[in-house]
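hey so u asked for the seq, here:
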Amino acid sequence: MRKMQLALLTLGATVLAGSANVTPAVARDYPWCAQGGEYDYPGECAYSTYEQCQASVSGRLLYCGPNPMAAYGQAPQPQSRPHRRARPVAPN
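ran it, C-alpha cells below
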C-alpha cells in the first residue's frame, strides 16, 4: 500500500511539474487570411504571403483577403469580465 501511494504521489508531481512549464500559444496575426466557406470573418489568418494563401485555398471554394488586424494595425480587444456584486450585509 505504501508503494502505491508513493507511486501515485510521484506521478502526480511529475504531471504537475510538466504542466507548470506549458506556456500559452502566442497568437500571431499573419497578413493574409483564407476566407469564405467554413470560416467566419476574418477567416484563417495563418499565411505570411498571398501566394501561400492562394496555394492553401486552391480547390476549396475559398478566397484570400487581407487580415484586418494586421492591415489596420488594430490590437485584439480584451474580453471584458462582468463585475461581481458584493452581497449586501444583513443588519444585526
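The longest helix spans residues 2-20. The chain has three helices and three strands.
lmk if thats what u needed
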